[in-house]
Amino acid sequence: MMAAIREGKRMPLPELIRRGVGRRRGGQRGTRGVRLGRLVTPSAGLLCACLLISAQPLAAQRFRGRRSMGELDCTSLRAAYDGRFAFLRLRYAPAYGERRSFFGGDDGGWAHDCPRAERHLTTILRELSSVTPNTEASNVFAADDPEIFKYPVAYLSEPGGWTLTEAEATNLRNYLLKGGFLIVDDFEGPRDWRNFGERVREVLPDAQLVPLDPSHPIFNAFFAIESLDHRHPYFSVMAEYYGIFEDNDPKKRLAVIVNYNNDIGESWEWSDTGLIPVDLTNEAYKLGVNYIVYGMTH
Fold first, then answer.
1. How far apart are CA 101 and CA 115, in angstroms?
2. What is the pLDDT of residues 160-190, one digit of tens each?
3. Distance in angstroms (rounded) separating the CA atoms of residues 4 and 131
4. CA distance 37 to 124
5. Which domains occur in the chain, in start order?
6. What angle do CA 52, 56, 58 make, to 5 degrees?
């Protein structure tokens, strides 16, 4: 079961510093006892430095498909349950008639950006906070696997093609009701939204998707994100953020964060290549770190 996090005194979070300027604060504690450590705003140089470790073993296989075909398979390095934060990605069967991956292969949209995205994000989390993540391995489980209850945060990619069995819907519902936190990412357009909404109703029949703005605590859980005027890394659309709350009450815990018309996992994956502008990858990392810190403390 998910480890309890000791309640601590809430301290002011560091003010967001613009790109190219770094300010440090050491020894502070963030929301509910998560120590921030020596925080430095992720400028372009810092992000590049943080990613050197994770980028080296993967560089030879770069540009081989949407999930870096030819690299280690998502499921080949299962993270041990050893007290460190481990990234959890949910697997699902591809929808009927859906191409199984952008450049072929055996995995559908659930594997998009895997494993580079989670390796890079956990490296940033390790370098900027006192969270101790597993940066070398992660987990992939179907939503009906009881193992998901060991991990407080789960990530779902491309819900436009998301499918669910009854057992998966039931288990994921229980996971969310018992305190699990779900990040939904990488989908755009009305067709994707429609499929996502249908699957949500299977998991949480009474759930309401509530638009979020920067005033919600998740956008201040580690970085102070003052604007959500983010654009999709490839398409000419502006990102939108939605949440599903416990008991549909915005004053209670946020159980699901939805990145619509956005693909922050893509920015995590390719942040060390120059394919995506630094401004976009920085914002994607800030969101990712905030999501993890919020999910671990609420």
1. 15
2. 999 999 999 999 999 999 999 999 999 999 9
3. 14
4. 13
5. 44-297 (3.40.50.12140)
6. 125
